């Protein structure tokens, strides 16, 4: 670690959970994580979409949502479908490639989606 404070913060992730939620029994090793967790109890959603009235707990959730208002930048090379998330394109491509990465542990059957197991 470049800074001793970074090392101290990292060590806390292994040794202690000094921040406790006043609403439930969860504890956290970083104050920031507790602050984010508290939003599940307070309902605070500080990140607002500028295109619609949706609000989000996490900035990353807002960023993902905003892509639903924009163009679909991910195009399938096999058909004319487009997607606003790379992950959704990757899943769709399996319909063309026949890839089935999820196997049943009881039989030899394979699936495109883990939820099909």
Q: Can you characterise this structure?
A:
- This protein is α+β, with helices and mostly antiparallel strands and 117 residues long.
- It folds into two domains: 4-66, Double Stranded RNA Binding Domain, CATH 3.30.160.60; 74-116, 2-Layer Sandwich (Double Stranded RNA Binding Domain), CATH 3.30.160.60.
- Helix content is 38%, strand content 14%.
- The chain has four helices and eight strands.
- The chain has helices at residues 4-15, 31-42, 59-66, 86-97, and strands at residues 19-20, 27-28, 47-48, 55-56, 74-75, 82-83, 102-103, 110-111.
- The strands form four sheets. A two-stranded antiparallel ribbon has the order 1-2.
- β5 and β6 (82-83) form a beta hairpin.
Q: In the CATH hierarchy, what is the architecture of the largest domain at level 2?
A: 2-Layer Sandwich
Count of spatially separate domains: 2
Strand content: 5-15%
Give, in spatial order, the strands making up the sheet with the most strands. 1-2
- Taking pLDDT < 50 over at least 5 consecutive residues as the criterion, the unreliable ranges are none
The CA-CA distance between the termini, in Å, is 42 Å
| Helical content class | 25-40%
CATH level-3 fold name of the largest domain: Double Stranded RNA Binding Domain
The radius of gyration is 21 Å
Main location: nucleus
InterPro entries: Znf-C2H2_ZIC1-5/GLI1-3-like, Znf_C2H2_sf, Znf_C2H2_type
GO molecular function: DNA binding; DNA-binding transcription factor activity, RNA polymerase II-specific; zinc ion binding
Keywords: DNA-binding, Metal-binding, Nucleus, Repeat, Transcription, Transcription regulation, Zinc, Zinc-finger
């Amino acid at each position: 670690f470049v800074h001793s404070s970074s090392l101290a913060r990292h060590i806390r992730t292994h040794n202690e959970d000094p921040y406790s939620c006043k609403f439930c029994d969860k504890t956290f090793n970083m104050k920031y994580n507790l602050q984010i967790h508290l939003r599940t109890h307070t309902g605070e959603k500080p990140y607002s979409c500028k295109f619609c009235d949706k609000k989000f707990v996490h900035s990353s959730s807002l960023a993902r949502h905003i892509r639903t208002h924009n163009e679909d930048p991910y195009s399938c090379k096999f058909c004319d479908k487009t997607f606003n998330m790379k992950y959704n394109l990757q899943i769709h491509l399996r319909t063309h490639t026949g890839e089935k990465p999820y196997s049943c542990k009881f039989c030899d059957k394979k699936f495109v989606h883990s939820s099909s197991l």
